[in-house]
Amino acid sequence: MALSSDMKETQRPVLSWDNFSFEENSTAVMSDAYKFIIPVPAQQEGSEPLVYPEGHAQAGQPIVDYKNRPIGDWGLVFFNAKDQAYQAVAADGDGVIILNGVTSAQAQKIDEKVRSMVSNPEELTIEQIKSLLSFVRTTVGIDDIYNSTRAYVCEKLVAVSAGENLEPPSNGLCYGGRKRRNEDISQAIYVPGTFALKGVTASEQLFDNGGVVVNQDGELWGIQPETFLSTYSLANGNSINTLEGDIATFNIEPNIEPIIKS
Questions:
Q1: pLDDT in tens, 39-81
Q2: Contact status, residue 28 vs residue 234, Cβ threshold 8 Å
Q3: How far apart are CA 241 and CA 247, in angstroms?
Q4: Is the pLDDT of residue 165 over 80?
Q5: What is the DSSP letter of 73?
Q6: 3-state class of 122 per DSSP?
Q7: H or E element: which one contains 87?
Q8: Which residues of 92-111 are buried (b: 16+ CB within 10 A; e: fewer)?
C-alpha cells in the first residue's frame, strides 16, 4: 500500500499526551454517534503484513499501538480519510472495524451489501471486507473508519438498531449498530489551528482547521471539528453550539517540534 495522495506535504506541530492536562483544563462530553461494527475474522488468506506503507516515514516497520505494541502480524491496513491517518486491524479473530457517524439510511445500505455477500456477518472473509470498505467509502460516503477490538465493543458500546428495518444485533454477534453508553463521559479540549496528534491511531491524525482532542477511557483520540459538533454533546445533555464557546481550549505553543507529512 502506497502513501495516500490525501496526505499533502505540510509542516505542523505534533501534540501528544505530554501537551495536555485534562484534569485542569477540559470539558466533560458524551458521544451521540451511531457506529456500525464489522467483525474481522481470524484468517491469513487475503491478509497483509501489518507494516507502515510505502512512502510513510516508517515504511516497512511494524505498525504499533499508542503503547508502542505491535498491532499484530497479519490483517488489514487501511486509510481513514477523515483524519488522514493509517489504521490497522489484526486478523486474529478479536479485531473489528468501526464505521463512525452512520445514519439509518447508510446502515441499511451497508447491511444489504453484507447480506449479499454472506448470510452470517461473522463469516465475512478478508477479501470481502476489503470490497466492503471500498463500497462504504465510494457508494455510502463514509470515510471515518477505524480499528478496535471485540472486547471494546462488548464493554463500551450498546447495541442499537442503526437502520429503520434493522433489529439491534443479538447478544454475541459483533456486528451492526452500536453507540457508547450515555453514562460514559469523556474529557475534551479544543485545539485551534493546524496540527498533528500522536494518539491511538497507527499514524498521526492530521488537522488542518483545528480539532478536538478527547481523553476517552485513558486513550487519546482526535476528532475533526465538524464531526465533533455533530456527534457529541455536553455531559449534562446540552448541545455544543461552538467549540470556542463551549469547549476548553488549548493554544499551541510556537516551540512544539514540527513534522513533515507528504
A1: 999 988 889 999 988 888 888 999 887 777 888 899 999 988 8
A2: yes
A3: 10
A4: no
A5: S
A6: helix
A7: strand 85-90
A8: bebbbbbbbbbeeebbbbbb
